[in-house]
Amino acid sequence: MSLKREELVLLAELGSATVYEAAGRAGLLEGPWLRLVPGSRAAGPARTVLCAPGDNLMVHAAMAVLQPGEVLVLALPTPEPVALLGELLATQAQARGAAAILVEAAVRDADEIAALGLPVWARWVSPRGAERKTPGRLGIPVRVGGVAVAQGDYLVLDGDGVVAVPRERAREVLEKARARAEREAALRERYRRGELSIDLYGLRPLVEEELRKADGA
After folding, report:
1. Which DSSP symbol is given to 14?
2. Which of 162, 170, 174, 193 has the highest count of CB atoms within 10 angstroms of its CB?
3. Residue 216, pLDDT above cutoff 80
4. Number of CB atoms found within 10 A of residue 173's CB
5. In the predicted model, is pLDDT for residue 217 greater than 70?
6. Strand residue runs (E) in 38-192
7. What integer is the mean pLDDT of 188-206?
8. ∠ CA(50), CA(40), CA(45), 5° rounding?
């Protein structure tokens, strides 16, 4: 089921950590990821691209089908530090209305891409350019960070990392993430009043002996 624009905004605001927990600790695209635009966060349905090794021909092709609000996901059969994305391709993606770009490879023109303001996450930054000779595939499931991402699955990207949510679970996970955020907001207020998580979570018996030792030190 597709999420509405306002729901995507909320998903991005909730963030990858909350969404990951709400999804049952599933869908984490293992990092590390380089976030090129400091402070950026995004959420949207994936537009998947599988490139041939060392080649970004399909990234150029993807620009012809990229839709506003989508997260462009660029992958290789085996990740390698070859730049699938540079400033000129990023400019095209921004003009097409991309919500973000996730690159399971390298990008180049990092400073220029950051200046564009289009949210981009990548494995590496490298000046090593790609060829434009060999066709790959568009719209097929790709493996990113150890997770299979299908076209239309939802991605949440921010400073903590990247999480994928299967399209069929999107609304369920969104509602659970919203509820989790509300619970955390209530806890935050209690912590501000001086209450302790060790008591609210019932953890004190697990560490009672160590607390006695520390209290008597």
Report:
1. H
2. 162
3. no
4. 25
5. no
6. 42-50, 71-75, 83-85, 100-107, 120-125, 137-138, 142-144, 147-149, 154-158, 161-165
7. 96
8. 40
